[in-house]
Amino acid sequence: MVKAKVLKLVLDDHGAYLGMEKGCFVVKDKYGNTERYPLFEQEIGEVILKSGNMVSTGALASLGFWDIDVLILTQRGRPVAMLKGLDSESHIKTRLCQYEAINNGKGVYVANQLVLSKIESQNVILEKYDLRPHDAKAKYVIESGGSESLETARRRLTSIEGKFSELYFKQIFSLFPEKLRPESRKKFKAYDGMNNIFNLAYEVLSWKVHTAIVRAKLEPYLGFLHSVQFGKPSLVCDFQELYRYLIDDFLIQYCQNLRRKDFIVKTEKLSRSKKGKREYLNDVQTVTYEVTEPRQATKTETLINEKTTVSAGYYLYYRIHIDISGKESNTVSGRVVETAGYDISFYVFDQKGFNDWKDGKSASKYVSAERIKDYSYGFVPDHSDYYVFVLDNGYSWFTNKVPQITATWNYRMTEYVKVTKTKSVSLFQLLTGKALVCFALKLMCWESSMASSENA
Fold this sequence. Notes:
Radius of gyration: 34 Å
Number of strands: 18
Low-confidence stretches: 434-454
Strand content: 25-35%
Number of helices: 10
Shape: elongated
Number of domains: 3
CATH architecture of the largest domain: Up-down Bundle
Mean pLDDT: 86
């Protein structure tokens, strides 16, 4: 099973900074607020960098080394580049198979399956919302081409796909608020707000598909269903068809509470001599999200709290392991009280010092108190080790002692805790964030299967 990397780092404001410090990605906004994302504690799947922000070469090197998706956007949010490793073009066998499929008949089969899968995915949405699904004869219609060239298959299949999509959108548009329903689905340069919402969402989807195709070592500009043209990522268009239904489902739910007042009208140039009005969604929502932040925490651990009896002529000891790694301001403090009204000697050693003292050799002590009745002590453990707390009654020939001993370890350490925050986001930010998590999970499974096929 593929473990999904769903955490996204998005720098879509102005003046933010992405850096790398001590194994953490560090994001600082223009106000100086800092958030840390430990590289080895969280699955970072994508980083989106918008023009107007800064990134360190150390962060870029870590992103490239760990094969984390990086998408670079203009200030208007248009993607212009992505980060690719030096070995991303090394899987030539995969691309050769893709090139050969164009001419050996497999391309026609792939094109058929793309259209069939799209129609099946549309049925998922239609059935979910109790609408009329596509005719069960769709598979027969799609596969009825027989032996034909890829060019012929493309013309036939795009015509079939267009007719099914027209029927599909007529039905799902009935689910939107009545005053916002478009008459039909319009793609390029739509004027109504709802079609522009769909166009925005599909554009974001195309970025995700493009990134996944590159990671799967395929040629994004050589498709099977869509025609091959200069500047047209036809394979991206092919695979985008498989996941549009996820966007549709999201938008059906997202748009239920929209009203006409949520849209603004902008006058734009259509040509050199003609202007037109176009509706755009003017939306901002408040969402909650979790980040991991460092916190300096003060910890207290009780090492010893006991009343005991030490026989005459003997000693008693407590052997406690203290690990100071990753901790600061380490102190151990406590108290020894002889409750029977006599006295007792008290020492604290590390393991080596205790062994030397036990063997009658000269030993270094952290605490040394001879024949005390009520004694408060403290010391600083300077290395990780076993520390030995000794109650010594060896000097008494006849009297047993009854000491009460306590020991408490105090220290400070950095903890990474999850903090819930809120922020205002637009539909664009939702689409580049959580809205496509389901899509990302499915696409990662596809990438994994592609890698497995190539290794085989």
